[in-house]
Amino acid sequence: MANTEQQVWFNGKMVPESQAKVSIFTHALHYGSSVFEGIRAYDTPKGPAIFRLKEHVQRLFDSAKIYGWSIPYSKQEIEQACKDAVLANGLTNAYLRPLAYIGNVGLGLTPKSTVCDALVAAMNWGSYLGDESLEKGVDVCVSSWNRLAPNTIPTGAKAGGNYLSSQLISSEAKRHGYDEGIALDVNGTISEGAGENLFFVKNGVIYTPPTTACILPGLTRDTLMVLARDFGYEVREESIAREAMYLADEMFMCGTAAEVVPVRSVDRIDIGTGKRGPITEQLQTAYFALIKGQSEDKWGWLDYVADP
Ligand code: PMP
């Protein structure tokens, strides 16, 4: 390919990345006023398909609504932009980053215009916690930083500013030699990882912290709850005490970027056998088969990039 520069959908047009310029007065740069998504496309026997595209785009619009901002494109236009970004970059497996932000509306905290600028970038990106983590699992710690309290910054919105909290959690964990940090919520019960939701298995029942535990209600979390119930497991959204986590038989974390990752230890305490557990493996296998189009898509979650 002569032109290998990445193509980005930027305010309605596909342009080379070097032409997608923003002002130094971009409101989001100064005040964190952006909302975004992380979406993956996988190569399937019927060509690249974007997993749960509609739900991700809906969450982008919901995040903007929480802040009172408008995205001056329809959901269908953003969905098409995601597909076009995969195609324009010749990708088969892709990580997609739609972003809507308050642009150069002048300084001052309250934006003078609440109409967002928008972009969609697409790139190759391996599993967020490392490809080997999928089988071997990761070692995590409980962060000294709590997750955002619900009456401070809403964790149900996927906003740029929220990720200052995530950066504190993950960088502290890495500084102390862990793969990832997980946080407690404002009540001291388990919330989520820096960029992942959490699941626990105890006596064959699957538990995950509820949406009131200051989490981002992840689409991978939702997918795994549906898959687990389809296998006949009982899945409970319940608040989880820190000590119950140490006593779980299995634990795993999940997210679009991280995919489904076993947790082998927390705070250097082995979870179960300290290896990927059987229910984790079963759900992980089912998840990868689904996103790669190798099992029946009963829920209509695969959105093919090129219409057949
Ligand atoms: N929690 C946080 C804080 C996240 O950043 C993510 C990644 N978007 C998740 C959970 C998982 O969400 P999803 O499965 O929708 O990617």
Automatic annotation (TrEMBL):
Pfam family, one: Aminotran_4
Record PROSITE patterns: AA_TRANSFER_CLASS_4 (PS00770)
CDD domains, per the entry: BCAT_beta_family
UniProt GO MF annotations: L-isoleucine-2-oxoglutarate transaminase activity; L-leucine-2-oxoglutarate transaminase activity; L-valine-2-oxoglutarate transaminase activity
Keywords assigned by UniProt, alphabetized: Amino-acid biosynthesis, Aminotransferase, Branched-chain amino acid biosynthesis, Pyridoxal phosphate, Transferase
Gene Ontology CC terms, in alphabetical order: cytosol
Enzyme class: transferase
Essential cofactor(s): pyridoxal 5'-phosphate
Gene3D superfamilies the record matches: 3.30.470.10, D-amino Acid Aminotransferase, subunit A, domain 2
InterPro entries referenced in this protein's UniProt entry, alphabetically: Aminotrans_IV, Aminotrans_IV_CS, Aminotransferase-like, B_amino_transI, BCAT-like_C, BCAT-like_N, BCAT_family, Class-IV_PLP-Dep_Aminotrnsfr
Gene Ontology biological process: aspartate biosynthetic process; isoleucine biosynthetic process; L-leucine biosynthetic process; L-valine biosynthetic process
Known EC number: 2.6.1.42
Keyword Transferase: yes
Organism domain of life: Bacteria
Role noted for this protein: Acts on leucine, isoleucine and valine.
Family classification: Belongs to the class-IV pyridoxal-phosphate-dependent aminotransferase family.
NCBIfam families: ilvE_I, PRK06606.1
Protein name listed in UniProt: Branched-chain-amino-acid aminotransferase
Provenance organism: Moritella yayanosii
Gene behind this protein: ilvE
